[in-house]
Amino acid sequence: MKASRLKNPFEAKHSDKKEKPLSYFLQLISSFKKQRQTFNTLLQETSKQENDGLIASYNIALLVAKSWKSHTIGETLLRPIIEEVLSTVMYEKPDNIIKKIPFGNNTISRCIDEMASDIKHQLTNILRRSKFSIQADESTVVDNQ
């Protein structure tokens, strides 16, 4: 765009800033960039915390599946144990951390089912990509002539 076309709207809408030096506008740009970085950092940290809770939930589901225990053990046993460890050893309130980790029966069951399905999918993909042969031995039974 031409400078003359930018000058008229600027003077009409921002007449109070018309006499400001260039350094003022450069400072505005740098403060805006800092605010945007702070906002992006905040979003990334929040996303990371949510992902950490999800990863912890899957790890707990894996441990429950390996132990062959009931899926409700997460709610009845693991939640109180984790709360006690966090409050006693870490001196933190466990409420904020526990809220991010789902322990429910349905959640644990769904996580186990998803992991089993993923393992089956990975195994079938490996078998499809690899070359192998099956040898069948033929034998004749004397009674079935």
Can you describe what's shown?
It contains 5 helices and no strands. With 145 residues, it is mainly α. α2 packs across α5. The chain is elongated. The relative contact order is 0.07.
Order of helices and strands: HHHHH
Low-confidence stretches: none
Instruction: Report how far the terminal alpha carbons are from each other.
Output: 95 Å
Integer-rounded radius of gyration: 31 Å
| Sheet having the most strands | none
Quickly give the structural class.
mainly alpha
Instruction: Determine the number of helices (DSSP H or I, runs of at least 4 residues).
Output: 5
Task: Give the overall shape.
Answer: elongated
- Can you count the beta strands? 0
What's the gist of this structure?
The protein is built from five helices and no strands.
Topology readout:
Layout lengths: L2 H11 L8 H46 L5 H16 L5 H5 L6 H25 L16
Question: What are the main properties of this structure?
Answer:
145 residues, 71% helix
